[in-house]
Q: What sequence folds into this?
């Protein structure tokens, strides 16, 4: 027989075997193990598994071989070399040794040399692994060309080993002349294709998870902005739109425990917002507080509202906030479309995310409510003492000076009107001063000569914006705790000045009684909290005092004032 | 007979209004009005009013504290006048004959006057619950200084009035020796002296059962025979 023809026949025969091999390789990449398999992060627990896989490949390579002249032309090398490249010399050596031992047990005049060479090939693969890792070229471990050339060198090595160890030498030479070319080519090509299958599958998974993560992140980003405004019908509709847009499902519905809060997508002509829930899957999800899934195949979703509803499958995920069920999120697909597993996972994930976001928005809302309530409390707190003392003063003045009494009553009504009306977050310094002015006129009447006022405001600051109700509580504190506790002459200084970095408002009294109060009272804490919330953490209220001499409250605000 | 009254309120207009209202009743002989607790003590000791119209919230010494510093023998009836009943009504009942809310309604004031007349007519002396004095108001120039009880070494009385003596200073006070003996932990050691037991450094025994106390700051004060026994007992000698 012509040597070349024989070799070609052998090549085709070997390629045929290799095809069977590659089918097995393909199946391997579809196994659940492969999903967790990352070449850069192989751990020790995965090695025994890889050992088994590659050993089986290697031994199968022997069995699928062609018996020639008492020897076997085979593809045993692929398993051993690849084990070496992927898992290092230990794995390569172990696989090569096991498969070699198996070949040895089958006998023939090349039994020993083949067993030895398979082990060597595994170690050779391992050597390439080490070289690549040392040079930080891990990403090339799954390069088809690396597999090709490594296997090429390995197979040439095998031929040399056969020539050296197989006896008689003439038989060995004759054999090598027949099998060398087909085996070298078939094994190298096979290894390269094997590796490229693994690589492509890996890449597919990675790309899939990248798009998956990107989708999830995009949804998270969009929904958090929406839910920061609270969870209601309006925001539910927007969230439903985002989910539908990102997942591409047929329709998305958000419900509370009784009714539909939002419905977006196919079938929105008869699934209307505000309807009570009729979907048995949704009701089941609420009742049993678990995810209910009707895939549209075995378990079909049936619309209870319309015969012509295009939707056929649904995923109902309970929406829990702080461990309390508040509603459901429902993803629908039409009857003619498959419900994607990725969308199922995304749907479940996004619901968890929404729960957290709703919880957070509730927390923020409550915090704001609390500050508002505290502000109201502070406003209410001013009243009784001040009001009754003011009225008592005015009544006394009525006897002597009706005009002055009338003027004081105007200030009193101005003060209360401002107190009641001020609901926004910010006011101008002028408005604040106007409020304080009325307060001071009345207190001045009450204390008469005992209270002296010095007011020094930079007129260019009058339009400065600051949190509403900032000045009044502090001026009131100066009077209530400072002046009214003094026997001697009381003095309150109020000034507002520009400084290079900020605006400084100072309220000072000469009572020096701050020590007795100990800490910032409720009113001042609220003022400080609101300045920090609305104007930035670096601003606020500082207190300094000299006992029996003075108490100074300094408010710092941004140079350009606070903005909404 | 008109009821002799004193108005105590730190606000000028409040005093004037009260004066006018009391004048309108025709039942009151107004002895005077004043704006703080020290002046009030002075006037009470001197004028012996039958009733005080007393503001609760006043600088330095509030209305309640003022009551603690008045001798039980000359304790007037007390009508509290306050802008806002933040103190519970219970507190008022124990410590006062009546209370009025500012702005004071003249019809309501009439009821108070009736009640006063009745009580005074029955000759029922006021017996208000008083509390221990924690600090002694003293005049220092035109300022009032509150001396903590612990800072005081002894109190002495003489023709120039009552003086509270600390390690470094001596202050005049309107509070009488008797009130201080009754409502503080200071011990009587002599007709004219109260001693803070914590400030005793040594007791030097003299002839005829007399003794003198040396305070921590080195001042000597006499101990009379009558009180030496009591002091010894207190000191577990």
A:
């Amino acid at each position: 027989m012509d040597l070349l023809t024989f070799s070609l026949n052998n090549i085709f025969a070997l390629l045929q075997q290799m095809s069977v091999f590659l089918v097995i390789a393909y199946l391997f990449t579809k196994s659940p193990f492969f999903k967790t398999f990352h070449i850069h992060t192989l751990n020790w627990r995965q090695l025994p598994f890889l050992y088994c896989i590659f050993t089986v490949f290697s031994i199968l390579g022997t069995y699928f071989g062609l018996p020639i002249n008492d020897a076997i032309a085979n593809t045993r090398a692929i398993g051993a070399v690849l084990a070496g490249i992927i898992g290092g010399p230990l794995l390569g050596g172990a696989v090569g040794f096991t498969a070699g031992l198996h070949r040895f047990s089958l006998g023939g005049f090349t039994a020993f040399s083949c067993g030895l060479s398979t082990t060597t090939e595994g170690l050779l693969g391992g050597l390439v692994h080490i070289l690549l890792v040392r040079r930080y070229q891990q990403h090339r471990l799954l390069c088809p060309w690396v597999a090709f050339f490594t296997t090429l060198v390995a197979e040439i090595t095998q031929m040399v080993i056969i020539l050296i160890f197989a006896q008689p030498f003439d038989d060995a030479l004759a054999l090598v002349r027949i099998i060398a070319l087909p085996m070298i080519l078939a094994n190298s090509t096979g290894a390269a294709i094997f590796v490229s299958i693994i690589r492509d599958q890996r890449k597919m998974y990675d790309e899939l998870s990248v798009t998956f993560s990107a989708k999830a992140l995009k949804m998270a980003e969009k929904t958090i902005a929406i839910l920061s405004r609270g969870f209601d019908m309006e925001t539910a509709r927007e969230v439903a739109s985002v989910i539908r847009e990102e997942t591409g499902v047929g329709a998305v519905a958000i419900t509370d425990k009784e009714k539909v809060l939002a419905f977006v997508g196919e079938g929105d002509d008869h699934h209307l917002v505000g309807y009570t829930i009729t979907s048995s899957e949704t009701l089941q999800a609420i009742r049993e507080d678990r995810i209910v899934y009707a895939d549209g195949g075995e378990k079909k979703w049936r619309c209870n509202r319309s015969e012509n509803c295009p939707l056929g499958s649904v995923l109902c995920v309970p929406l829990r906030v702080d461990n309390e069920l508040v509603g459901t999120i429902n993803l629908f697909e039409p009857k003619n479309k498959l419900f994607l597993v990725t969308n199922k996972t995304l749907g479940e994930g996004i619901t968890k995310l929404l729960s957290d976001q709703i919880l957070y928005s509730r927390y923020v809302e409550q915090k704001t409510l609390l500050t508002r309530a505290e502000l109201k409390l502070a406003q209410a707190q001013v009243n009784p003492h001040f009001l009754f003392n003011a009225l008592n003063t005015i009544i006394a003045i009525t006897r002597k000076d009706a005009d002055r009494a009338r003027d004081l009553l105007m200030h009193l009504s101005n003060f209360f009107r401002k107190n009641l009306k001020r609901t926004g977050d910010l006011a101008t310094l002028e408005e604040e001063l106007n409020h304080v002015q009325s307060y001071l006129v009345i207190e001045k009447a009450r204390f008469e000569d005992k209270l002296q006022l010095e007011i020094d405001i930079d007129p260019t600051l009058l339009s400065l914006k600051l949190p509403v109700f900032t000045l009044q509580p502090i001026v009131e504190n100066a009077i209530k705790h400072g002046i009214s506790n003094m026997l001697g002459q009381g003095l309150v200084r109020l000034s507002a000045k520009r400084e290079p970095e900020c605006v400084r408002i100072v309220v000072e009294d000469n009572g020096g009684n701050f020590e007795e109060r100990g800490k910032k009272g409720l009113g001042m804490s609220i003022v400080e909290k609101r300045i920090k919330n609305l104007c930035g953490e670096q601003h606020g209220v500082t207190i300094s005092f000299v006992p029996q001499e003075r108490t100074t409250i300094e408010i710092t605000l941004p140079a350009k004032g606070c903005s909404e | 007979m008109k009821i002799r009254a004193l108005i105590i309120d730190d606000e000028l207009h409040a005093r004037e209004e009260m004066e006018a209202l009391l004048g309108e009743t025709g039942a009151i002989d107004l002895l005077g009005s004043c704006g703080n607790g020290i002046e009030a003590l002075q006037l009470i000791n001197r004028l012996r009013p039958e009733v005080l119209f007393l503001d609760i919230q006043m600088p330095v010494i509030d209305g309640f504290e003022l009551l603690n510093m008045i001798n039980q023998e000359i304790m007037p009836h007390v009508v509290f006048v306050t802008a806002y009943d933040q103190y519970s009504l219970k507190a008022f009942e124990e410590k006062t004959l009546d209370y009025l809310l500012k702005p004071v309604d003249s019809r309501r004031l009439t009821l108070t006057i009736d009640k006063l007349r009745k009580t005074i007519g029955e000759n029922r002396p006021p017996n208000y619950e008083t509390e221990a004095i924690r600090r002694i108001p003293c005049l220092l120039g035109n300022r009032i200084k509150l001396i903590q009880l612990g800072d005081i070494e002894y109190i002495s009385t003489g023709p120039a009035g009552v003086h509270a003596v600390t390690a470094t200073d001596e202050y005049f006070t309107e509070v009488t020796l008797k009130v201080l003996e009754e409502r503080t932990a200071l011990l009587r050691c002599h007709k004219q002296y109260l001693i803070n037991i914590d400030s005793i450094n040594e007791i030097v025994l003299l002839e005829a059962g007399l003794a003198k106390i040396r305070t921590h700051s080195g001042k000597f004060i006499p101990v009379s025979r009558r009180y030496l026994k009591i002091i010894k007992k207190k000191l577990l000698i």
